[in-house]
Structures are given as structure tokens and as C-alpha cells.
Amino acid sequence: MMVNSFSQFESPVFLTIPLIQLALILPWAFYPSPSPRWLSNRTLTLQNWFIGRFAKQLLASSTPKVHLWATLLVSLMLYIISLNLLGMLPYTFTPTTQLSMNMGLAVPLWLATVLVGFRNQPTLSLAHLLPEGTPTLLVPVLIIIETISLLIRRFALGVRLTANLTAGHLLIQLIATATLAFMSIMPANATLTSILLLLLTLLEIAVAMIQAYVFVLLLSLYLQENS
């Protein structure tokens, strides 16, 4: 039983064992394994089509060096989408509503893009901290501002994903609570709120997929900047 609206974001515990580990492992069980036959099943064909379309869209404007990261980016995209969509099912838990979980993904990947830049092109990476033609008096200020902007990227990745999913889940819960309250006293209003709840659920499914795409797209842009 939920004490308040934010109780749904607490990690469930069974026999003193946090079930967030199960929620993180569960998506891998739904991925179809490659078939040794020449003719694949519909699920595998659909998955391959989706991966191909996504990789083509993601890497269309990227440099060849970014293409080396395609496997990691596509895998991360599928993993985050699976976590987000599984969280839309009843009596489930969404790990990506936890800021610690998202920061655990965002910080190492962001740091990897920065290290790649300093390894491949250290001079150009440092040059990003100071735009060309900057007046001498503004040099220290702009270096500080650009450094802060670089450090904020890791928080932007994690906080954006957390905030969008949390807001959607809260709104769905509030409208569902209102629908249950209206059923006995105002059936007409309950019907309208039920339709609104259905539309909002479809919108939240779209948001869950879009946010996973945005997360990976920003990573690819950071890689392209540092490659």
C-alpha cells in the first residue's frame, strides 16, 4: 500500500532483498536469441529492422570514429527502452526513475567521451574551453563558464531521464486516483478521466521511448565533438 504519491518510486524489497537487481536483469530475458536457421522468426526480424533503422538514424550525421561505438549505443538504447516500458506494466518497478541509477549510467559514459577527446585530440579538446577571438579580460571568466558547462553535461543526461519519467508516472497516478474517486459520485466525469488516462498512458509510452533515444543521441553528440 502506497503511503504517498512518491512511494511508487521506492525500490521494492522481498525478504529483505531489494528487487531492483531483478528489474535490471529482467530486460535481457526478453531479447530473442539469434536463430541458426536462414529464415528468422517475426520477433527477430522486427528487432533487426528496429536496430537497423535506429543505428542508421543515429549515425547518419556522425563521423566514422563514432561508428565504432555503434554497438554500445544501440545496446544502451534497447536496454533503457526495455526498462522504461517494463515500468509501465502494473505492479512493476521502473529503475530509471531513480536518479542514482541514471547517474550511474550517465557519469561513466560522459567521462568516457571526455577521455576519448583528451586522448585523440588534446589540443582541440582544451580549445573548446576558450572560444576563438575572446578578449583577454574575459578569458578567465569564459574558461570557468565552459568548464562548468562541460561538467553539467553528466547531470543533464541523468536528471533529464529521471525528471521526465517521474513526472509522467506521477501524472498517471493522480489521474487514476481521480478516476476511481469519480466512479461512484460522477460517472460521466469518470468516463472522461478514463479516456484522458488512456491517452496519457499512450503518451507516456512514447515519452519512455523518446527519452531513451535522447539519452543515446546526446552521448553520440558528445562523442562526435570529442572524436
From TrEMBL:
Keywords: ATP synthesis, CF(0), Hydrogen ion transport, Ion transport, Membrane, Mitochondrion, Mitochondrion inner membrane, Transmembrane, Transmembrane helix, Transport
Subunit: Component of the ATP synthase complex composed at least of ATP5F1A/subunit alpha, ATP5F1B/subunit beta, ATP5MC1/subunit c (homooctomer), MT-ATP6/subunit a, MT-ATP8/subunit 8, ATP5ME/subunit e, ATP5MF/subunit f, ATP5MG/subunit g, ATP5MK/subunit k, ATP5MJ/subunit j, ATP5F1C/subunit gamma, ATP5F1D/subunit delta, ATP5F1E/subunit epsilon, ATP5PF/subunit F6, ATP5PB/subunit b, ATP5PD/subunit d, ATP5PO/subunit OSCP.
Family: Belongs to the ATPase A chain family.
Main location: mitochondrion
Subcellular location: Mitochondrion inner membrane
Mode of membrane association: Multi-pass membrane protein
Gene Ontology MF term list: proton-transporting ATP synthase activity, rotational mechanism
Record's protein name: ATP synthase subunit a
UniProt organism field: Monopterus albus
Bilayer-crossing regions: 12-31, 66-87, 99-118, 138-156, 168-188, 194-223
A Gene Ontology cellular-component term: mitochondrial inner membrane
Family annotation (Gene3D superfamilies): ATP synthase, F0 complex, subunit A
Chemical reaction(s) catalysed: H(+)(in) = H(+)(out)
